[in-house]
């Protein structure tokens, strides 16, 4: 039995040695495959509609093998890579679609402003200052409301009605700030927006007339709308002049300031100063002689 056990042990040892040798030889003859080199290309981060002005959140990077890059793809850190932020999307794109130069219209392209307009819409420019333009924080692609503030003190004697403010246009898209048609790329760009003196809006033909008249009536300012509550792809029907039976009433000076409300009304002030009192006319007297008798009749009666 001892010889049989020795023989079995030798066989097992030989098998183990053979397996080890085979593994070593295989590893030498078949080196491990090298890691595949990848690059990042630009793709759409979500389903995007045609005519959208692209923002950071609309774009993403996707890793693909370096040898399998689509011909028109924009590769990260490539010397000739174009910037898609602020460009206009030519067609709808599903999430993950590779985006290239042929898929967009760049802000530097001729006719870019006209291309950004939806059908039957117009572009109208509004003068702004640092305050009315939200301190330069409004940028192309944002949605805003347009507020009209008027000084009424030269039209009314009532302190309550000395100043009014109202929304004249709601939910309109900003096309350009100054001459900038795209969002800033560097930290210096907000300073350029601060220096801008006009904002160009996308409006309907009627809204363009409303804005032109409002600019003559008083000062205009912008209220920036939240993207969380309004669709980025608001159609022409959603951008409307704030007029009609559902329009909110204007806000007057007396609605805001209790000091203005406590001022005396103009007619009360005049009464306190003392209005002229009407004086009754002196009755006329008539002297009547009847023979030697004389009588006085007041008021002209006989």
From TrEMBL:
Residues 1-26 form the signal peptide. The keyword Signal applies. CDD domains: SAF_CpaB_FlgA_like. It holds the Pfam family RcpC. Residues 111-225 form the Flp pilus assembly protein RcpC/CpaB domain. Keywords: Signal. This is Flp pilus assembly protein RcpC/CpaB domain-containing protein.
């Amino acid at each position: 039995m001892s010889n049989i056990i020795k023989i079995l042990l030798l066989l097992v040892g030989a098998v183990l040695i053979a397996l080890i040798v085979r593994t070593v030889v295989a590893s030498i003859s078949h080196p491990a495959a090298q890691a595949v080199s990848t690059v990042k290309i630009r793709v759409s981060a979500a389903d995007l509609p045609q005519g959208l002005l692209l923002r950071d959140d609309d774009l993403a990077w996707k890793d693909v093998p370096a040898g399998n890059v689509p011909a028109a793809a924009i590769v990260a850190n490539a010397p000739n890579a174009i910037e898609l932020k602020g460009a206009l999307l030519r067609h709808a794109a599903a999430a993950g679609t590779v985006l290239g130069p042929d898929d967009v219209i760049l802000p530097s392209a001729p006719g870019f402003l006209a291309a950004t307009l939806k059908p039957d819409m117009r572009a109208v420019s509004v003068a702004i200052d640092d305050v009315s333009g939200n301190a330069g924080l409004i940028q192309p692609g944002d949605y805003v409301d347009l507020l009209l503030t008027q000084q009424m003190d030269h039209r009314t004697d009532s302190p309550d009605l000395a100043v009014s403010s109202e929304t004249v246009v709601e939910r309109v898209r900003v096309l350009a700030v100054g001459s900038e048609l795209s969002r800033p790329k560097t930290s210096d760009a907000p300073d350029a927006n601060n220096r801008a003196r006009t904002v160009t809006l996308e409006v309907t033909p009627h809204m363009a007339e409303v804005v032109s008249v409002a600019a003559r009536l008083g000062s205009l300012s912008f209220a920036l709308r939240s993207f969380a509550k309004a669709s980025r792809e608001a159609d022409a029907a959603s951008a409307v002049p704030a007029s009609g039976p559902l329009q909110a009433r204007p806000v007057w000076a007396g609605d805001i300031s209790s000091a203005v409300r406590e001022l005396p009304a103009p007619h009360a002030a005049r009464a306190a100063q003392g209005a002229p009192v009407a004086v009754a006319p002196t009755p006329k007297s008539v002297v009547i002689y009847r023979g030697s008798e004389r009588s006085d009749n007041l008021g002209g009666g006989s």
